[in-house]
Design a protein that fits this description.
Length: 320
């Protein structure tokens, strides 16, 4: 048995007090936090519209956004949903529908119409009047063409929004003059669905057309309100404009940049030309390679469009 001198024992105790044992769980220092990846640079484009988004048409991935999920009035861009609703109801494009007093009453407060009460037009031409020139008498007439009154058409439009997974979009009116809301992102996703329908894609992409009433009395020439489409400087697939005092100037359109189709939406612009200037700024930014872009999927964009185009151009909605 080893016996230590008293002095040595005291020395060891003193060392124990000065240098306490380190617990086994703390024997090693915690590893350093990994360095955070550098933040992506801000996109080199300044948009003037209050809300904006640019998405990839194939995937729904966001290339550029500005308050893209803020709920806003959407004015006559509403009519994209009318078109989807009546196509889903398998409207007879070659059938005829008469413009009635109820259509005129619902259009009060909007821009001047050229669809006279008592005149009858092909449904395909009413779609042109609605989508190209935003005639406010056409939506209700198109609803009636598929057996829907005004309330039924509004319900069908809300049904289209639900089937597309658009949870922030609500309709109370078929023309867009009163109460309808959505977001830049959800509006872009709706136009993506419309451009997947060959009939709507053709109409949305027309810049100039003449329609004739059944009686031949009315011969009306319509020109698109989609200024970039009319200008012809870029490959524009088609879209829709809108304006009310509450909504500001709105614009949603499809375009092609290189081999990529994109959908751009701009809401709440203060000036009539601002939305089109934002389109040009966004396209020029993508032509430069979209510097600063970070692709990401929005909640609604992650879902594939549940409205599909069947043979002959008919639309059907898959229910989940």
């Amino acid at each position: 048995m080893l016996v230590l001198p008293i002095a040595a024992v005291g020395l060891l105790l003193g060392m124990a007090l000065v240098f306490p044992a380190t617990p086994a769980t703390e024997a090693q220092a915690a590893p350093a936090e990994p360095a955070s990846p550098p933040a992506a640079p801000a996109p080199e484009v300044e948009l003037k519209s209050r809300n904006a988004v640019v998405i990839d048409a194939e995937t729904g991935a966001e290339l550029l956004g500005k308050a893209a999920d803020e709920i806003r009035p959407i004015a006559s861009t509403t009519k994209v949903f009318v078109a989807l609703a009546v196509r889903q109801a398998e409207i007879d494009l070659d059938g005829w529908t008469e413009i009635q007093r109820d259509d005129a009453n619902l259009a009060k407060g909007g821009a001047r119409t050229r669809l006279d009460i008592g005149q009858t037009f092909r449904n395909r031409d009413l779609l042109r009047a609605m989508l190209m020139a935003s005639d406010n008498r056409a939506p209700n007439a198109l609803g009636r063409a598929v057996g829907l009154d005004t309330a039924g058409l509004v319900k069908a439009m809300n049904g289209v929004a639900r089937s597309l997974g658009l949870t922030r979009t609500r309709f109370t009116d078929p023309s867009g003059l009163r109460g309808n809301v959505s977001t830049a992102r959800e509006l872009a996703l709706a136009l993506r669905a419309a451009l997947a329908d060959p009939v709507l894609r053709q109409i949305l992409g027309e810049s100039d057309v003449e329609i004739v009433s059944k009686s031949k009395y009315a011969k009306l020439r319509y020109r698109t309100t989609n200024q970039p489409l009319a200008a012809g400087k870029r490959k524009v697939l088609g879209g829709k404009t809108g304006y009310t005092r509450a909504a500001g100037y709105c614009f949603v359109t499809g375009a092609r940049i290189g081999e990529r189709d994109v959908v751009l939406a701009f809401l709440g612009a203060e000036g009539k030309l601002t939305r089109f200037a934002d389109f040009d700024r966004s396209m020029a930014w993508m032509e430069r390679g979209a510097p600063g872009s970070r692709l990401k999927l929005g909640r609604a964009a992650a879902q594939k469009t549940p409205i599909r185009v069947e043979a002959g151009g008919a639309l059907s909605a898959s229910r989940r």
